[in-house]
Amino acid sequence: MVTLNHLTVEDADDGSPLLHEAAEDATPTPVFHRQRVIPKIDSRECFLSRRENLAFSLLLLIGCYSAILIPAYLPLDKVATLSDDNQHPKDLVLLNRSASLLSGPCQPRWSLNHLKPLSCSAGLVDIPVFVQQDRHVPWDLSPPLGLRGSEEHLALALASLPQPGLPPSLRTDGSCRRCVVVGNGGVLHGSHLGSHIDQYDIIIRLNNAPVPGFERDAGSRTTIRLIYPEGAPHSEIEYEKTTMVALVVFKSLDLAWLTSVITKQPLSFWSKMWFWREVVDDIPLRPESFRILHPEIIHKTGQVLQKYALKQGNMVPTLGAIAVVMALQLCDQVSLAGFGYDMRHPEARLHYYESMRMGTMKAQVVHDVSAEKLFLRDLVAAGAVTDLTGAL
């Protein structure tokens, strides 16, 4: 049996709803919902174990430190290098001074004559530049200040050199020669001295300081590149416009490396293990293009620097200081470019070819860069050398 509720129809024009009473009397129909079954989760599954948590934290910490520290040691990218090509020179005064110096005549014995007033001048003249077979010198000190204990390696290296002494182009023939020692300092970046550097008779560079890509500031030619095995450039391009490579001996094995490079006979795997970084196996230069720097230059340079140092003892100078003293033996006028570390500005560029900052120099303890800076400043003040980049 069906029971009908009383229906009331009202005028819809007044806005009241139809079937009003029916809506009130109707019994709501119960609605049944399907109950969701929520699985019970073990809280232990949401968390890492103590060991996994420690490992993850260490990886995260290493990643953060790498992101902060590694970019400071990476070379500048191509985009940054190319964008700098349109920049103006950092110091037009220094650039004009360099141009004026080159426009004048070369002054014979200029550097040696201006070196005499210095108290250290006696130890900086008449030093042999390269090791020769016909000059038997007692090696009282071990490398790098001498060659005691390296006689066998030295004999083999000299036997592989067709011309172990001064090459004809560097022998004294009465002509006046200008030298420039190109340091690796960041002060060279943006100097626009490249075309000036290329005008010097002898251009000395250090270790693996690059030339291709940096010609605007550093020049394009190399007369002598001072290196030790771990610092030798690996790219063959760096040797394309190089006249000579001179080995600075820091250990006996360095002489064995030089013999290997000249004779094209590779070193043994065991010998290579004693180098602190990978060394190059081949340098694309003829045997007559190699020399061995005389350790007397290193020894005498160290003795002079000792006068500026706070601590006493045998001092090992940097290649930069060694190159300056070598230049004083070879040239009438000596100029410097890219020298001078300013430790007061740790954020400044350390090298002209990479983004490493000056603050990293505080960690090194091998060389006394403060003593070297005082020494070079005295040379500049006496007029014995000219500082082209103005950081000394």
Automatic annotation (TrEMBL):
GO BP term (any one): lipid metabolic process
Catalytic activity: ganglioside GA2 (d18:1(4E)/18:0) + CMP-N-acetyl-beta-neuraminate = ganglioside GM2 (d18:1(4E)/18:0) + CMP + H(+); a beta-D-Gal-(1->4)-beta-D-Glc-(1<->1)-Cer(d18:1(4E)) + CMP-N-acetyl-beta-neuraminate = a ganglioside GM3 (d18:1(4E)) + CMP + H(+); a beta-D-Gal-(1<->1')-ceramide + CMP-N-acetyl-beta-neuraminate = N-acetyl-alpha-neuraminosyl-(2->3)-beta-D-galactosyl-(1<->1')-ceramide + CMP + H(+); ganglioside GA1 (d18:1(4E)/18:0) + CMP-N-acetyl-beta-neuraminate = ganglioside GM1 (d18:1(4E)/18:0) + CMP + H(+)
Molecular-function GO terms, alphabetical: lactosylceramide alpha-2,3-sialyltransferase activity
Main location: Golgi
Keywords tagged on the record: Disulfide bond, Glycoprotein, Glycosyltransferase, Golgi apparatus, Lipid metabolism, Membrane, Signal-anchor, Transferase, Transmembrane, Transmembrane helix
Pfam families noted in UniProt: Glyco_transf_29
TM segment ranges: 54-74
EC number, as in UniProt: 2.4.3.9
Membrane topology of this protein: Single-pass type II membrane protein
UniProt cross-references to InterPro entries, sorted A to Z: Glyco_trans_29 (IPR001675), Glycosyltransferase_29 (IPR051142), GT29-like_sf (IPR038578)
Cell compartment(s), UniProt: Golgi apparatus membrane
Cellular component aspect of the GO annotation: Golgi membrane
Entry's family note: Belongs to the glycosyltransferase 29 family.
Function text: Transfers the sialyl group (N-acetyl-alpha-neuraminyl or NeuAc) from CMP-NeuAc to the non-reducing terminal galactose (Gal) of glycosphingolipids forming gangliosides (important molecules involved in the regulation of multiple cellular processes, including cell proliferation and differentiation, apoptosis, embryogenesis, development, and oncogenesis).
PANTHER family: SIALYLTRANSFERASE, ST3 BETA-GALACTOSIDE ALPHA-2,3-SIALYLTRANSFERASE 5, LIKE
Designated name of the protein: Lactosylceramide alpha-2,3-sialyltransferase
Higher taxonomy: Eukaryota, Metazoa, Chordata, Craniata, Vertebrata
Gene name per UniProt: st3gal7
